[in-house]
UniProtKB/TrEMBL annotation, chain A:
GO BP terms, alphabetized: peptide transport
Major subcellular site: membrane
GO CC term (a single one): plasma membrane
Gene Ontology MF annotations: ATP binding; ATP hydrolysis activity
CDD domains registered for this protein in UniProt: ABC_NikE_OppD_transporters
Organism domain of life: Bacteria
Subcellular location: Cell membrane
NCBIfam families xrefs: oligo_HPY
Name of the molecule in the record: ABC transporter ATP-binding protein
Family: Belongs to the ABC transporter superfamily.
Length: 351, 313
């Protein structure tokens, strides 16, 4: 599915926020490469910096946030150096578009949904008036809205949550972007609708040749759609690999812990696994591996020196000292092995 | 459409009830109010003859019927003490129109200046214009109006050579009263539109509009302003109509022959029919104003109609 053409390459990105006179480091030197046509899922718990990381690609950080260092290379331009709105206008929508989490509030209540889709088209596709309207109706049809002609004239309050999310997606697609960032696209929807929306995104990806970044904490979503997975913890990507690699052969103790806390892997009658402790305080400088204090397998060096990326396969790498040849051999927890069996069975069923 | 009809019908019903209540309340007033200054000198026979003449000795239902009929004819009775034997409609007519003219002019000015200032404040939140506007809003509200009315009258007549008092035939003499009337309302409009816009700017749809590549100016114009205006639309017609009540300070300061303070005066002078006419007028204005406000709001916000038709929500 993936080829080797890079569309976006983020290197050593550091993002800081000023909060009540203190400085918070939200992203601590994260790096990522995005390939054309792939689906990448960024997973991690709340506050791990998933949203901030991707918002910085579009200049949508809150006013008190800034890119401290690092680069975001897109089409030979370094987006990290963009400052003014005029710079960002060239990127937003046209090159990178975004689908937000809550469809109930993401649409302007006073404009018809059709007009809101049309606005994207008029902004980015050089079409005006009737032509733009025709395309808007077509896109509404593409995102699975029946009777698009009639629905075009309706207002957001006449749509259900799932339908509104389709409209939000239509607005993003209507910009004709290269990259689509879906920030928790299904979190606010109920389970049956979730699957439909994910399927829709997959279909649109093919039709419009989109590169999609999913931001989610729902590993079910990830398993469904992602070609590659980036695991984020405390503002850094600690493991990155193909979907199968991260699910079946995770290397970082945080990924183990994250997967172990899936309810499906729990053993009946036993308490559900949860990661002990709390995420680190991002106001303070973090020394060593950010996960070390919560990591039962932490080594001495984990508290002293930040681990580099160790390559497991050419497509799979993780930031953990456990992968150092000198480290003691630590077996992943049993539940991870069980996961493997479950996924195999599931795969067979899907076939 | 159905919504408008229902709304219209309900307003009419409310109006009828209010009119009836006002009429019945007025019947409970002391009868001196129908006689003017000579009441003490009249004997019982004369009083009865006069009351009978006015139809006040008829049973209440008959009185009510007669009252409705004369209302339909546009007859509000004659004044008794304020300007004896003159039709109330005639007394009020000129005054109402004068006050309404000033009111509409000053409201238009406050809307234009207030909304622009408020929008400017919201766009530059926390910066110069916001602080400037806040100073003005606080100042206009904190300083008693009479003080700056006087200051305006004293200094502006001097500096700009404007007439001290209002004269219908001198267009220049409109300027100062309108300015005085606008000062506080401008501050209110600026404050409210700023508030509503800042609320709207924090909403998710603005974030989406930004993400799809709209400039902040376009977002303001195409998305935020209309949303911020909806809550204000409701009160706009009422505030326009209420200007017929006039402003007691400004009108007496510039000696404008308007309705400012008229109700208080006629109550003091016990002019029962004129009091009745004024109370009727003001309460109907209140009802009509609210109705127009609701209609205006529903014209701006598509969600309002549907909630009444039991739509899909």
């Amino acid at each position: 599915m993936t080829n080797n053409e890079k569309v976006l390459s983020v290197d050593n990105l550091v993002i800081k926020f000023n909060l009540r006179g203190q400085e918070l480091t939200a992203i601590r030197g994260a790096s990522l490469e995005l390939y054309k046509g792939e689906s990448l899922a960024i997973v991690g718990e709340s506050g791990s910096g998933k949203s901030v990381f991707t918002k910085s690609f579009m200049g949508l950080l809150d006013a008190n946030g800034r890119i401290e260092s690092g680069s975001i290379i897109y089409k030979d331009n370094d987006l990290a150096k963009y400052k003014t709105e005029d710079d960002w206008i060239k990127i937003r929508g046209k090159e990178i578009a975004m689908v937000f989490q809550d469809p109930m509030t993401s649409l302007n209540p006073l404009k018809t949904v059709g007009k809101q889709v049309q606005e994207s088209i008029e902004l980015h596709q050089n079409l005006q008036g009737e032509e733009a309207k025709k395309l808007a109706v077509e896109i509404l049809n593409d995102v699975g809205i029946s009777e698009p002609e009639r629905r075009y004239k309706q207002y957001p309050h006449e749509f259900s949550g799932g339908m509104r999310q389709r409209v939000v997606i239509a607005i993003a697609v209507a910009c004709n972007p290269n990259i689509l960032i879906c920030d928790e696209p299904t979190t606010a929807l109920d389970v049956t609708i979730q699957a439909q929306i994910l399927q829709l995104l997959k279909n649109l990806q093919k039709k419009y040749q989109l590169t999609i970044i999913y931001i989610t904490h729902d590993l079910g979503v990830v398993a469904n759609v992602a070609d590659r997975i980036a695991v984020m913890y405390a503002g850094d990507i600690i493991e990155l690999g193909l979907s199968e690699e991260v699910f079946f052969d995770p290397k970082h103790p945080y990924t183990w812990a994250l997967l172990s806390s899936l309810p499906q892997l729990g053993i009946k009658g036993e308490e559900l696994y949860s990661i002990k402790g709390t995420p680190p305080n991002l106001f303070k400088e973090i020394k060593g591996d950010a996960f070390a204090p919560r990591n039962p397998h932490a080594l001495k060096i984990d508290f002293e020196k930040r681990p580099p990326y160790f390559e497991v396969t050419p497509t799979h790498k993780a930031r953990t000292w456990l992968l150092d040849p000198r480290a003691p051999k630590v077996e992943p927890p049993l539940s991870i092995q069980k996961m493997r069996e479950m996924e195999v069975k599931r795969g067979e069923r899907l076939e | 459409m159905k919504y408008y009809v229902t709304r219209l019908f309900r307003s009419f019903l409310t109006l009828m009830i209010v009119i009836t209540i006002v009429f019945l309340l007025m019947r409970m007033m002391p009868i001196e109010g129908y006689f003017g200054s000579g009441f003490d000198k009249l004997d019982a026979g004369q009083i009865e003859a006069k009351l009978k003449n006015l139809g006040l000795l008829d049973p209440l239902p008959v009185q009510l019927k007669n009252f409705y009929i004369s209302l339909l004819k546009g007859d509000l009775g004659q004044s008794i003490t304020y300007r004896p034997k003159v039709d109330n409609t005639k007394i009020l007519g000129d005054k109402l129109i004068t006050s309404l003219r000033f009111g509409v002019a000053s409201l238009t000015l406050s809307l234009i200046v207030g909304l622009s200032l408020g929008i400017l404040m919201a766009r530059h939140k926390g910066k110069f214009w916001d602080k400037f506007g806040t100073c003005y809003v606080v100042g206009a509200n904190a300083v008693p109006a009479v003080i700056y009315y006087l200051l305006i009258q004293v200094f502006f007549t001097d500096i700009f050579k404007l007439p001290l008092l209002f004269d219908k035939s001198v267009p220049k003499s409109w300027i100062l009263p309108i300015l005085c009337l606008s000062l506080v309302t401008t501050a209110y409009y600026a404050m409210w539109i700023r508030r509503y816009m800042v609320d709207e700017l924090n909403k998710d749809y603005v974030r989406l509009a930004r993400a799809k590549g709209l400039k902040s100016k376009e977002i303001m114009i195409r998305h935020v302003m209309r949303n911020a205006f909806v809550p204000m639309a409701q009160y706009l017609p009422a505030s326009i109509l209420y200007t017929v009540a006039g402003s007691i300070y400004v009108e007496s300061l510039f000696s404008i022959p308007g309705t400012g303070g008229l109700l208080v005066t006629v109550i003091q002078r016990q002019d029962n029919t004129l009091v009745q006419a004024l109370v009727l007028l003001y309460s109907s204005i209140g009802i009509v104003g609210l109705m127009l406000g609701d209609i205006l709001m529903s014209a701006f916000d598509p969600r309002i109609k549907l909630s009444h038709e039991g739509g899909s929500r």
